[in-house]
Amino acid sequence: MSQDPMDFEWSYWIEWGRERILWLLAGHLLVSQVSRLLVEKYKPWCLMVYGMAACWLLLGVKGFAVILLHATISFAVAQFQLSLLTWLCSLILLSTLRIPAVEEAKRKWYDTENEYYLLLFTVSVRCLFCTSFSLEYCWHGPAQKSSHSFLWMLAYVFYYPTFHNGPLMNFDEFSKQMRKQEAFSLKSNLSILILGIIRIFFWWYLAELMIHLMYIHALYSSATPLEAASYWALG
């Protein structure tokens, strides 16, 4: 059975995944395990540097600079410790993505539309992470401010597994997991890795199956079958 050709986003991420993202995720896993074995104390910073390098590789120096600029502005605004100001800052940063002149300038940075869309997706998701960090900075007391430094914000924003399209993890949970030190166990780590791979392939297969059996996006683009269907069928 042929695949639904109208599902642009799935095709888009599959293409990027096969070309680079899958390999960069494998690189992240390698850096994570090596740093855990050799320099566990500096693991967050090793992963931060890796995430920055991956961002530079995929989005170029200008794309990297945009994300770094957004993080810097968000952190500066968070110093006022006003949630409303943080939300306004985030909305303004997001709105810049839809300014025609800015869009045109960013498109010129890349050779293809797909590269520009990757920047757009990534900056949008990074804005959510900047907002999460800034809000938690506003909510916490002075005693907890040391754990919400700009360096920790960069480690959070450039954490590669959630870099392009999430999922969103709040900063407190991220920080808690990064600071937790566990004894290395080859058996437990291997079982976690195998289970993770099985989960990925299960959901990947399920998504592919849905695209081949449920032509949702093709139906969206054609009004005739939707108008002919009953309300029960549509529901």
- What would the average pLDDT be, to the nearest integer? 85
Estimated radius of gyration: 21 Å
Termini separation (Å)? 25 Å
Major β-sheet, in short? none
Question: Brief overview, please?
Answer:
With 235 residues, the chain is mainly α. It contains 11 helices and no strands.
Question: What does the model show?
Answer:
With 235 residues, the protein is mostly helical. The chain contains 11 helices and no strands. It is globular, with a radius of gyration of 21 Å. The protein starts with 7 loop residues before the first helix and ends with a helix.
Features of the shown structure:
single chain, 2 domains, palmitoyltransferase activity, transferase, globular, 235 residues, HHAT palmitoyltransferase, MB_O-acyltransferase, MBOAT_fam, mainly alpha
Q: Which helices and strands appear, and what pairs or packs with what?
A:
Blueprint: H1 8-38, H2 43-78, H3 83-95, H4 100-107, H5 113-139, H6 150-157, H7 171-179, H8 186-213, H9 216-220, H10 223-228, H11 231-234
Helix pairs in contact: 1-2, 2-3, 2-5, 2-6, 3-5
Subcellular location: Endoplasmic reticulum membrane
InterPro entries: MB_O-acyltransferase, MBOAT_fam
GO molecular function: palmitoyltransferase activity
